[in-house]
C-alpha cells in the first residue's frame, strides 16, 4: 500500500472500531440507566440491589476482555472485577471494610497494569513531577484531615490504618496513571479519587453533601468507564502498531 491508501485504510478502521466500541458499550449504559432509574435505597440491601449496582462494572469487564483477552484478568479487567466485588459488599454497611479491601486490591491491580509495556512512558517532565507532588500532598493532607473523624468511629482501631493504606494505594494508582500519559487513564484515576473523597467526607460525618449518592455513583461509573476505555484504546493502538510493522516488513 502507498501512503494515501494506508491513510484511507486507517480512517476506515477507526470508524469501524468506533461503531463496534459503541455497540459494546450499550450494555454498560443500559445497566447504568437501570441502576439510576430503580435507585434502590441504601436501607434495603439485597442480592438484587447488589447485582444491579455491580452490573455496569461487570459490563466493562466483558468489554475489556473482548478486546484484550484473558490476560487482562491480571490487568484492568481484574481491577474491574475486584471493583464489582467491592460494589457487591458495600450494599451491606457491615461489609464496608470488606468492600474497601476489594477496591484496595483493584487499585493495586490497576497500578501493576499501568506499569506494563503497553503503558510504558517516556521520561517525566517537570509538569508531571509537579502533578505527582500534588497527588501525594493531597493524599497525605486528606488522611491527616480524616484521622480525627475516624477516631470517633467505634471501629477506629481498624479504620485508621485501613483508610491510611487505602489512600496510599489510590494515590499510587493515580501517580502511575499520570505516568502513562494517557488522558482517559489519568482522568479516570482523578475522578475515582473524587468519588472516594465524597464517600469519606460523608460516611465519617465530616460534612453532609446534598445528592451525595448521585455524585458518588456518577463519578464512580464515569471513572471506571474512562479507565476501561483507556485500556481498550491502548490495546487497539498496540494492535495497529503491530499491523503497520507487519506491512513495512
The geometry reads as globular
Q: What portion of residues belong to β-strands?
A: under 5%
Structural class: mainly alpha
Biggest sheet, open or closed, and with what strands and sense? none
Which blocks of ≥5 consecutive residues have pLDDT under 50? Answer: 1-6
Q: What distance lies between the first and last C-alpha atoms, to the nearest angstrom?
A: 12 Å
Provide the helix percentage. Answer: over 70%
Rg over alpha carbons = 20 Å
* Assembly status: single chain
Count of DSSP H/I helices: 8
Mean pLDDT: 88
Order of helices and strands: HHHHHHHH
Query: What is the tally of beta strands?
Result: 0
Task: Describe this protein's structure.
By secondary structure, the protein is mainly alpha-helical. It is built from eight helices and no strands. It is globular. It starts with a helix and ends with a helix. Mean pLDDT is 88; it is low at 1-6. One of its GO terms (molecular function) is alkenylglycerophosphocholine hydrolase activity. It catalyses: a 1-O-(1Z-alkenyl)-sn-glycero-3-phosphoethanolamine + H2O = a 2,3-saturated aldehyde + sn-glycero-3-phosphoethanolamine; a 1-O-(1Z-alkenyl)-sn-glycero-3-phosphocholine + H2O = a 2,3-saturated aldehyde + sn-glycerol 3-phosphocholine. One of its GO terms (cellular component) is membrane. It is found in: Membrane.
